[in-house]
């Protein structure tokens, strides 16, 4: 009997050994991955009432922690929330954390791995970790100007970036909202505000529409076709492209019409210059049909489409070509080539593509964060320009630049011109279903010979005259402001 | 059978010394809670410290009179666990505004009173052998109670194991753990020869007669019945394990344990296939971290929140009062291990598990040392039930196995569990007293030469 008792004891001990193993696994080996689990809000709970670092623009805090006299000692306060809602996101116990508040949470809470040594000494001294300050690349004057350009009641996004460094100078979207509503310590009011805002069309509570929402890019996508055509070697700057008023497909009743608002219908053959200046559809559709879907996809990828991993530092929604359709038939490929069908892009993606053309074909990683500093003003992180990918050759980039200059000088983006500065630009007008409304785009850069700024403007669901009035002329104003002309 | 002879010394003074350490642990934990959560050291704090010390001393003094040779480690370990549990429950009360701490104090008092009564009134554990069949009837009665309309508390967190009498709710299954162990020990110690020797042989396998196994089958049905009718997987595993270990210790036949495990595996698989709540529980365990299961009604939210809490605690823990264990549902009862893991860290949880291992080890030691087979079986059964209970609940919280609603002995908020476990401790103390006291001049002949009867 005693031997059986000893054996049972061994079984009991074996059970305890298993427990030691599973406790070690949860609290040590798997702890990092559990702490990083997206469903885990412990970090948020731990830091919710603590003094987080500020987010700074032009030296002034746009998000800061202010002392309260309740048990929860600090509350997040947003200054100029409408202007910056899409960038800061919010930090809420009840609605979650988004935007920079989420992407930079370790820095803002002062719990980065770099701060490990500080944390160890804090563990002994009893001092709580202190948040680091995050200074943005945003120029507050340009940000304000861009925001005011979008009329109330109209949705829209504007991105201004530096093509050489990837630094975001301005990024706005409308409609916006007051992020302070989400940061409240009163759950009922947060829940009510959330329920109301989440249903407002055009508001993306989880980040600016400029990098979270995708739209049909329309004719700005023709820049991809152009780059693909030149890269293939089958086309050069003097190629003559077919320009029928309507493109027919064998055996199908469907025809693809040319662009109605330019001078496309005046000739049935077109140079790249003419096709781009007037934004004709059929020449680019024929390029795509000639090169095939894979060649266009490859060039789109090189400009950053279909990239699901980009962060700046918040995660950017992937722009898509060809989108959900997979293998495209002739008409679908033709429509995709002019930025319709299932092709979608974020305004940030279009700005990045333009920046690659402006920067000799080198696409820089976009970034919002200029510097991260500890409370004692030690700089722990500073913006390092980083090449994301080589989108095209310098020669092709220069050629496309020249054509984009003539789109502004002689073509349909004339309103974007700035006296004394060469501006390169491209417009886009993408039909939105059968609503008769369009996504109106402008994307361009200046000065063309030494590009300093890229401006991308996007107004979804507007009629053609409104779109034209809100895009190119505003781009001109922004170029004047940033170039101080 | 071989007797493990220890020099017969009472060791009550060592117990007193260890008790001071154990009390220190509970009181210091409570002090930390007050310090970290900004509470003042009001009268409550000193009263509680005094009450805990008084209760411990009451048991200690009782032992000096009634079980002088009892194991000196069991009581301090129990007091340490009980005190830590009280501190953690108090800590959670402060954040949640609950009053579970007060109820736990009340139940601790009642439980210790019950333990002291057992120690005073029960002259020798062998007396319990007379109540073998009464214990079986009582077990059946206790297990059926939660299903009786009128006093049943209905479905609570998916299991029908509670009864409600006025303001008190009670889990009769906790007490049934003791009565079943008494029944198994009494029945097996009386009938092991019959079970072993009577009956047909089938090849090398000695089959027992059905009538000798009858009561055992009844007990087995009880454990399966708990699963089927009360949806309580944890208690079912506990009873089954109790049954297996006692029959193994009684007969030394490992083959029967294998047969039992195969039966249980078949039963388990059938339950998984037939009962949707078992299927859901297993699926929820496997896919616990899948957001779809976290968000689901009755999904893995509880266990995943517990894991997040424990990961948050890491090696050293956040410190008592510094974490947020209150975001785990049932943080002070089913999930108290996660609360301890978060605030006291891996180190603290290891210490708690070591305390359990120590307690269970002393129980097994009493089983080895005591001279009668009834006492051996009872001590092994009760100790192994503790071990299994710790394994099922701590394993469930750490996602080693699916989470079931067993209580964490001495730590978790809950009166019935506390009461039952203190009574078990009293029984183990009694048995260890029998094991360690100087040998009686005439050992009972029926307990000798039973070690290996050739299975002729």
UniProtKB/TrEMBL annotation, chain B:
Question: Which cell locations does it reside in?
Answer: Membrane
A GO molecular-function annotation: lipid-linked peptidoglycan transporter activity
Q: How does it sit in the membrane?
A: Multi-pass membrane protein
| Pfam families with a match to the protein in the record | FTSW_RODA_SPOVE
Record field: transmembrane = 45-61, 73-92, 104-122, 131-148, 168-189, 210-229, 235-251, 256-275, 344-365, 377-398, 410-429
- Any idea which UniProt keywords this protein has? Cell shape, Membrane, Transmembrane, Transmembrane helix
InterPro entries xrefs: FtsW/RodA (IPR001182)
* Region feature Disordered, mapped onto this chain: 437-456
Per the UniProt entry, what is one GO biological process?
Answer: cell division
Q: What is its main location?
A: membrane
GO CC, alphabetical: cell division site; plasma membrane
The name under which this protein is listed is FtsW/RodA/SpoVE family cell cycle protein
